[in-house]
Amino acid sequence: MSTIKADICIIGAGSGGLSVASGAAQMGAKVVLVEGHKMGGDCLNYGCVPSKALLSSAHHAHAMTTGAPFGVAPAVPQVDYARAKDHVAEVIAAIEPHDSQERFEGLGVQVIRDWGSFISPTELRAGEHTITARRFVIATGSRPFVPPIDGLESVDYHTNETIFDLRERPEHLIVIGGGPIGLEMAQAHARLGCKVTVIEAQKALGKDDPDLAAFVLGKLRAEGIEIREETAAEKVTAEGGVTVHTPSGPVTGSHLLVAVGRQVNIDRLNLNVAKVDHDRAVKVDATLRSPSNRRVYAIGDAAGGLQFTHVAGYHAGIVIRSAMFGLPAKARTAHIPWVTYTDPELAQVGQTEAQAREAHGAALQVIRLSYDDTDRGRAIRAEGMLKLMVVKGRPVGASIAGPQAGELIAPWATAIANGHKLTTLANTVLPYPTLQELNKRAAGAYFSPKLFESPLVKRVVGLVQRLLP
């Protein structure tokens, strides 16, 4: 048994943990990184990276069927499902070196490949090592939540941790869960030649603007994906492959994907011994520290908030400022964007229309624009919409559904994070023609009535014209 003393010990080598380890080590701190499973965490191995890779394969298959409006004859794609999965594996393999143990050891991080658990408020045991650290960072992420559905344990089912290993194309994939993971995988498999049924106990994409969510769901249904909303999965049996019993009748398919949410990975940590308060996640304050043990931080999914890779990275920056420099740093959520990478994409930052109306009342102005309000949108026959929520000249929220919505949300995320006024974007000169003009037009639409419909402006312009030589 060896004893290690460190400035900072990070538990979990996912996105957030790796960011803290890299930053702290390069700033001269003695860093220990503990990981009992795969370097890179869920995002690299089971989440963001493989899902977007599979969606890319699906996009190419779908493009072969949709060229008629552009003068290109549609063709039936010949899908090699196993080769699509090879593409997924190749993308993961290409990124792996950046997250590898070798790279982080090269940065000066001591990497311990074992599960960690606290043995006191100041000590962590990992395999044959006892680590004493000035600061601990819990960055253990989350895993798929498997709901207590009657009979589920008696059938073979997939989660996002196993679906990417599947080599034979499902004939009929049933997806339990109508959130981002479930719908992304539903569309990817539908475009790769599978019949797909989605079962959602509440509203699909229920955390997003309902108007824009309805637009996206309509597009998915138009591609042949059956989406049953407000329909609970009551029981699962192995009849005919796998059958999900619902109040609206049974659904029988060949494969089942469970995508109903995430469960935080804290059960191995022995947090009670560490005197770290927790429930479903670690309880932290705005500084991401445990009020019951100030040595301990939690970031990303382990902190119990928004479960996105970019949030874990954001949290890592908060911890670096606090733990390395002793600077005051607090995490916020109002400026955090998120994207569902279906086609069309669905992006959100700040308040939705409903949230903004509740918060700001009559002071709120909602600007709505369509993609075909831009020339680039018309050129590519883009369908979609943008909602911009504005209060006193400042954006408080933006919702976008359509092509590249995840890219188009970036200026609004910047504006909301930094408290910018709409003049910042309205004064920006953008290349023509781009879809980014949609954002500038939205900013301009706020000022247009004040300029073009104001009697005062007209009187001033008239006076100036009479006085000018």
TrEMBL record:
SUPFAM superfamilies from the UniProt entry: FAD/NAD(P)-binding domain (SSF51905), FAD/NAD-linked reductases, dimerisation (C-terminal) domain (SSF55424)
Q: Give residues annotated as binding NAD(+).
A: G177, G178, G179, P180, I181, G182, L183, E184, E200, G261
Residues the entry annotates as binding FAD: K52, G116, T140, G141, S142, D301
Q: Does the keyword DNA repair apply?
A: no
The record's remark on the cofactor is: Binds 1 FAD per subunit.
Q: Which cysteines are joined by disulfide bonds?
A: C43-C48
Q: Pfam families from the entry?
A: Pyr_redox_2, Pyr_redox_dim
Q: Where does the FAD/NAD(P)-binding domain start and stop, copy by copy?
A: 7-315
Gene Ontology molecular function: flavin adenine dinucleotide binding; NAD(P)H dehydrogenase (quinone) activity; oxidoreductase activity, acting on a sulfur group of donors, NAD(P) as acceptor
Q: Which cofactor does it need?
A: FAD
Q: Which residues form the Pyridine nucleotide-disulphide oxidoreductase dimerisation domain?
A: 336-441
Q: Give the UniProt keywords, A-Z.
A: Disulfide bond, FAD, Flavoprotein, NAD, NADP, Nucleotide-binding, Oxidoreductase, Pyruvate, Redox-active center
The yes or no answer to whether the keyword DNA damage is present is: no
Return the similarity comment: Belongs to the class-I pyridine nucleotide-disulfide oxidoreductase family.
Q: What protein is this chain from?
A: Pyruvate/2-oxoglutarate dehydrogenase complex, dihydrolipoamide dehydrogenase (E3) component
